[in-house]
Amino acid sequence: MDKKALIREYKETSRPMGVYCIRNTVNGKLLIGKSIDLPSILNRQRAQLRSGSHPNPTLQTDLYAAHTKKWILTRIARRAFHRSSRTRTSPES
Question: Rounded mean pLDDT of 82-92?
């Protein structure tokens, strides 16, 4: 595939958008967020927490106190989103 075709294919790919939760299983604290690209935001949250550069200092401090294995990142709700048309579709499609 040429570069233009790859770019077009990427733009036409539907991305799951929705709500996510980062939960501390020790003290029950939650961070709830939303994103138009769930896989990317969950990956970013993990990377920021591992590197110590998360924008939420309380979450980062709790992570060091409770250790990484005590945190769970989950998707709460999800919808497919088409980048090219900017329209939502149901998760089944």
Answer: 49
Contact between 66 and 26 under an 8 Å Cβ cutoff? The reply is: yes
Q: Which pTM value belongs to this model?
A: 0.62
Burial class (CB in 10 A: 0-12, 13-18, 19+), 22: buried
DSSP class of residue 25 equals T
Report whether 75 contacts 19 (CB < 8 A). yes
Instruction: Name the token pair of 61.
Output: 């401090």
For the segment(s) 14-89, the CATH number from 3.40.50.300, 2.60.120.1440, 3.40.1440.10, 3.20.20.210 is: 3.40.1440.10
Query: The tokens of 27 are what?
Result: 């003290």
The distance in angstroms from the start CA to the end CA of the chain is 26
Within a 10 A sphere around the Cβ of 49, how many other Cβ atoms? 19
